[in-house]
């Protein structure tokens, strides 16, 4: 059977190798076009259903109580075409023991594959259909459930049940600040069951909590049409806003997760997995773009040196040092060394093996990400697949602080027959793990001669990424024979269609008609607080623009401090807007009123408005405030008029906010302070 060519390469094959590395925030959109940057999204959203997708266990009940544990091992299975998925084979090499922590209130025998699936949850199907209609997708006539292999242990069955709901849609994509006004293609929307929550992953044992397992979620996939890191972030916000428009999705940590697919010219699709916040996406995808560019530079240099993948292959056999001249068992070479890490490894009974990489000298030290080099790519592959339990476990000759001291380096080169142009990697691990590690080092080094390996990578908090697993291919998917097809009836679709919520792009049009600017309308249309803005019902024009601007500033400020917008916020704002519109409160108090409404959600509108309402004695209040400020201003004699005025406005306005025109306060202070200066 012929090997199918991968379909995930960037369409441009001309990597700009001379493009200098640059920090995020220093490039224009044209620079990303030069790089051949392209990205797409896979946005996963949990649905707010009562039950899980294929059983009747409650959804959304999280617990730390454990009633029992189950231990399992995963093994790969052949696809319908008689092929193994590469990810499944990689996971099998890790030899993981998988422990599931079970709570009897949140799981049943279905999740552990001891019972066939129940009928698919109808509530979840209808929410997924609603989302597909909002994305303008072509609906399938029947749901056909497929099995998608998952051998990382996060699903006890070893596969995830998933069903395609809709295909080939397009939605408006507008970001005025970026000059973006086009459509974004949505490739597909599928309905699937969620996986377990990981508790720990140490050595060859990974532990999961199964309460989240089986909860319904949708996966919306875009075409790779996002052209800059900021566009990727805005795409995530848009897809999330469409899902939230239904009012039928879960919110909070872990309820929405996005995978980002990135490539540059000459590269291939790399999936950054499980990014939990849109804020971190631009830095991550920018870093990944330059990681790929640096891997392509390494490929070019290896080609110049004449290095081929074939020269790095290792023969079959249990111990690679017995079948390859590139690997030796090196424990004896390190006997007597005084380096603490090596002494500790020897005391634990670990095996040291050394791997020769022909003509790789200097390559392992080549920078790939901020603070990381190509040697880190090898180290990550070893960490994930060989699962060493102790640190450090890896060193190489390109490191400036390598524990391979000069005398041992000479012995290693002699034992391996390695000239100075070769690099040497040393690994300390259990004997079986050392053998796996040696093979992975040679495999990853061989991939460097080809270019960008197909990988799924995990997001790190510092904006870098780390290896997670080999990128899955089409061989992981096959039909689920336990679940019959489910027709999507026309009358059900029509019932859902006539009650569809307003889309973000329709909201943006409505906000522009209300007098908001292009950027205000675009931001507000995807904001979680847009409902409160709508309930406030501001009149057309300046007051609507003021309220949108106040929301854009004050709501995120309070959210960062753990003060979310209360459900009653809209009604409170409606009272505030009417007070400003009728002149009872001046518009300058709006920010303070929004702050008060967020900070005191249980307060009445009278209590919120009282400190800012204008009264009949407004002029008298102004004069009293000015008198008090001028009296204290005598201590600042000798300062310039502008300094005095700035200080005086800061002193007077807090007590007059909402009650007096700032221009009138300023004019009166200028008059009185001018007199004071002359008198001084």
Layout of helices and strands:
Layout: H1 29-35, E1 38-46, E2 68-72, H2 86-93, E3 97-102, H3 122-134, E4 138-139, E5 142-143, E6 145-149, E7 159-175, E8 180-193, E9 197-202, E10 205-209, E11 216-222, H4 229-245, E12 256-263, E13 270-275, H5 281-305, H6 320-323, E14 327-329, H7 340-347, E15 351-357, E16 367-369, E17 372-373, H8 374-385, E18 394-396, H9 406-416, E19 423-429, H10 431-448, E20 455-459, E21 465-470, E22 477-479, E23 486-487, H11 490-497, H12 504-513, H13 518-525, H14 530-536, H15 542-559, H16 569-581, H17 590-599, H18 605-609, H19 618-633, H20 641-656, H21 662-679
Parallel strand pairs: 3-10, 13-20
Antiparallel strand pairs: 1-11, 1-12, 2-3, 4-7, 5-23, 6-7, 6-22, 7-8, 8-11, 9-10, 12-13, 14-15, 15-19, 16-17, 18-19, 20-21
Please estimate the helix content: 25-40%
User: Largest sheet, described in full?
Assistant: 11 strands, mixed
Report the count of strand segments.
23
Multimerization state: single chain
Structural class: alpha+beta
Count of alpha and pi helical runs: 21
Low-confidence regions: 1-5
- Mean pLDDT across all residues, rounded? 86
Computed over alpha carbons, the radius of gyration is 31 Å
- How would you describe the shape? globular
Q: Overview of this structure, please?
A:
It contains 21 helices and 23 strands. The protein is of the alpha+beta class. The strands form 5 sheets. Strands 1, 4, 6, 7, 8, 11, 12, 13, 20, 21 and 22 form an 11-stranded mixed sheet that branches. A 4-stranded mixed sheet has the order 2-3-10-9, with no helix packed on it. Strands 14-15-19-18 form a 4-stranded antiparallel sheet, with helices on both faces. Helix 4 crosses helix 5, helix 15 (542-559) crosses helix 17 (590-599) and helix 19 runs parallel beside helix 21 (662-679). The longest helix has 25 residues, at 281-305. It is globular. Residues 1-5 have low confidence and may be disordered.
């Amino acid at each position: 059977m012929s090997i199918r060519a991968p379909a995930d390469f960037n369409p441009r094959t001309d990597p700009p190798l001379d493009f200098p590395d640059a920090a995020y925030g220093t490039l224009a959109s044209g620079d990303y076009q030069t790089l051949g940057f392209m990205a797409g999204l896979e946005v996963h959203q949990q649905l707010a259903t009562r039950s899980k997708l294929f059983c009747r266990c409650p959804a959304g009940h999280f617990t730390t109580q454990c009633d029992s544990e189950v231990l399992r091992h995963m093994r790969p299975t052949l696809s319908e075409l008689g092929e193994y998925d590469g990810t499944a084979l990689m996971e099998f090499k890790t030899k993981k023991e998988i422990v599931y922590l079970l709570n009897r209130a949140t799981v049943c025998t279905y999740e552990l594959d001891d019972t066939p699936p129940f009928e698919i949850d109808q509530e979840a199907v209808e929410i997924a259909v609603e989302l597909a209609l909002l994305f303008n997708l072509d609906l399938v006539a029947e749901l056909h459930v497929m099995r998608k292999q998952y051998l990382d242990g996060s699903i006890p069955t070893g596969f995830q049940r998933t069903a395609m709901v809709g295909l080939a849609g397009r939605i408006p994509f507008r970001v005025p600040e970026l000059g973006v006004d086009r459509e974004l293609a949505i490739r597909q929307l599928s309905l699937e069951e969620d996986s377990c929550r990981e508790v720990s992953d140490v050595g060859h044992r990974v532990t999961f909590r199964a309460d989240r397992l089986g909860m319904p979620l949708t996966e919306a996939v875009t075409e790779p049409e996002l052209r800059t890191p900021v566009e990727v972030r805005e795409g995530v916000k848009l897809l999330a806003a469409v899902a939230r428009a239904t009012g039928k999705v879960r919110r909070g940590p872990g309820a929405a997760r996005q995978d980002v697919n990135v490539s540059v010219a000459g590269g291939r699709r790399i999936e950054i997995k499980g990014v939990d916040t849109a804020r971190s996406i631009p830095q991550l995808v920018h870093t990944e773009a330059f990681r790929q560019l640096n891997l392509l530079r390494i490929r070019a240099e290896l080609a110049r040196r004449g290095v081929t993948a074939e020269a790095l292959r290792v023969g079959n056999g249990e111990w690679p040092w017995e079948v390859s001249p590139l690997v030796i068992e090196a424990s004896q070479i390190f006997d007597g060394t005084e380096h603490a890490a090596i002494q500790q490894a020897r005391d634990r009974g670990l095996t040291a093996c050394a791997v020769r990489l022909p003509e790789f000298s200097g390559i392992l030290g080549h920078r790939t990400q901020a603070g990381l080099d190509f040697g880190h790519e090898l180290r990550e592959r070893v960490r994930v697949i060989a699962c060493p339990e102790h640190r450090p476990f890896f060193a190489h000759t390109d490191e400036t602080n390598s524990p391979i001291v000069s005398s041992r380096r000479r012995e290693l080169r002699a034992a391996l027959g390695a000239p100075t142009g070769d690099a040497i990697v040393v690994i300390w691990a259990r004997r079986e793990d050392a053998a796996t590690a040696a093979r992975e080092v040679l495999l990853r080094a061989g991939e460097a001669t080809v270019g960008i390996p197909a990988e799924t990578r995990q997001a790190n908090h510092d904006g870098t990424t780390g290896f997670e697993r080999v990128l899955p291919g089409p061989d992981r998917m096959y039909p689920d024979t336990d679940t019959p097809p489910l027709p999507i009836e026309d009358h059900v679709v029509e019932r859902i269609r006539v009650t569809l919520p307003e889309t973000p792009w329709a909201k943006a049009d409505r906000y522009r008609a209300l007098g908001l600017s292009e950027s205000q309308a675009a931001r507000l249309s995807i904001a979680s607080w847009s409902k409160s803005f709508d309930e406030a019902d501001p009149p057309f024009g300046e007051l609507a623009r003021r309220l949108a601007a106040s929301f854009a500033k004050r709501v995120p400020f309070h959210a960062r401090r753990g003060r979310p917008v209360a459900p009653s916020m809209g009604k409170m704002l409606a009272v505030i807007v009417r007070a400003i519109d009728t002149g009872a409160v001046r518009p300058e108090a709006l920010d303070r009123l929004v702050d008060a409404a967020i900070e005191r959600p249980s307060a009445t509108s009278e209590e919120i408005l009282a400190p800012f309402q204008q009264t009949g004695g407004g002029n008298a209040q102004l004069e009293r405030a000015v008198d008090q400020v001028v009296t204290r201003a005598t201590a600042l004699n000798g300062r310039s008029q502008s300094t005095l005025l700035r200080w005086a406005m800061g002193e007077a306005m807090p007590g007059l906010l909402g009650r007096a025109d700032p221009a009138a306060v300023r004019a009166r202070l200028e008059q009185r302070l001018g007199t004071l200066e002359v008198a001084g």
